[in-house]
Amino acid sequence: SREWHLTARPQGWPKPADFALREAAIPELGPGQVLVRNLYMSVDPYMRGRMNDVKSYAPPYQLDQPMHGGAVGVVIASQAEGLNIGDHVLHGLGWREYAVLDAKHSITVDPEVAPLSSYLGVLGMPGLTAYAGLLRVAAFKEGDAVFVSGAAGAVGSQVGQIARLKGASRVIGSAGSDEKVRVLVEEYGFDAAFNYKSGPVAEQLKKAAPDGIDVYFDNVGGEHLEAAISSLNVHGRAALCGMIAQYNATEPPAAPRNLALVIGKRLRLEGLLVGDHGDLKEQFVEEVGGWIREGKLHYRETVVEGIDNGVEAFLGLLRGENTGKMVVKLAD
Ligand code: NDP
């Protein structure tokens, strides 16, 4: 079985030489364990943080050890009651072809109910992040004008659509290409969208939201957060979900420089961790699953083929080569 190891801690942008795809023996199954053939694995922005040797909400990857991450696979051997050969499971031992794990650390998923990859994206962790972040952390209410950055990605594309479906007065998104901007408006029903690479974010946001915004969902940080603080209306709320613009930075960010506005406008800026919101999962799957079945919520995935391309997929995610959730397909 092949698995990806981190072999050096990246300085700035990770490079292929910081990783190695290595052969490893498959351990014997113990009681309560299953052997899973991974079919899809997730690559996610938070993994960049786990490559640094710093204390954070997710522990750092160890050098010369397999990396971890979300994956969906099929059980091919079982010593666990309740899990049989042929069952599909979601679990945390991605970045490898085969995984041996305790059955209690997996969740059974049904490929008849939804495509397997969607359990890593629109119906999985990123989807719940969007749902809980917008509705609970940002306390979205009908009539709010919402701005989301990283809007063509897994989390962002869902934030904008949930806001639209829940009665936002205006939904604005930013993304890194004209094609992504087109998808936001034409496929996802955003009222306005702009390419943040085409000009200053603050100017483009003011044009897209002439009456200001009530909610900002931050996936990017930096210049985007500064622009949002300027455009937020009195008593506006921001859910701080991610700051991908600085994950590879070697210098601290220059922005936001306008934090003092938070006082006068009585803004609320609140950090968000999806792990705090597991209690919303059932409600989220029911509501979002329903919207998908009814054709009201759209999603895309960017699927990279083969374990060999796992690191390239991760680097591509950081470069913005994905529209919607980036996943790696390992086997049929
Ligand atoms: P995405 O699918 O959004 O992929 C990442 C995207 O980030 C890229 O496609 C790229 O799109 C964009 N990007 C990369 N660099 C920059 C930059 N310098 N400035 C602006 N945009 C950039 O990933 P996810 O949906 O999985 O995650 C989105 C955010 O949410 C991340 O910040 C992530 O860390 C965070 N997150 C937080 C969670 C939590 O619990 N707090 C849980 C899950 C995700 P483009 O072409 O538009 O540049």
Q: How many separate domains?
A: 2
Q: Alpha-carbon distance between the termini? A: 16 Å
The count of β-strands is 15
CATH top level of the largest domain? Alpha Beta
How many separate helices?
A: 9
Poorly predicted tracts of residues? none
Give a written overview of the molecule.
InterPro entries: ADH-like_C, ADH_N_2, ER, GroES-like_sf, MDR_fam, NAD(P)-bd_dom_sf. Residues 15-328 form the Enoyl reductase (ER) domain. There is one protein chain. This protein has 332 residues and is α/β, with parallel strands linked by helices. The chain folds into two domains: 2-120 and 300-329, Quinone Oxidoreductase, Chain A, domain 1 (Alpha-Beta Complex); 125-275, NAD(P)-binding Rossmann-like Domain (Rossmann fold), CATH 3.40.50.720. Helix content is 25%, strand content 25%. The protein contains nine helices and 15 strands. The chain has helices at 46-50, 125-137, 154-165, 178-186, 201-208, 223-231, 261-264, 281-293, 310-319, and strands spanning 2-6, 19-23, 33-42, 71-78, 88-91, 98-102, 107-109, 145-148, 170-175, 192-195, 213-218, 232-240, 268-271, 301-305, 325-329. Strands 3, 4, 5, 6, 7, 14 and 15 form a seven-stranded mixed sheet that branches. Helix 6 (223-231) links the parallel strand 11 and strand 12 (232-240). The protein is globular and about 60 Å long. The two termini are 16 Å apart. The model has no long low-confidence stretch (mean pLDDT 98).
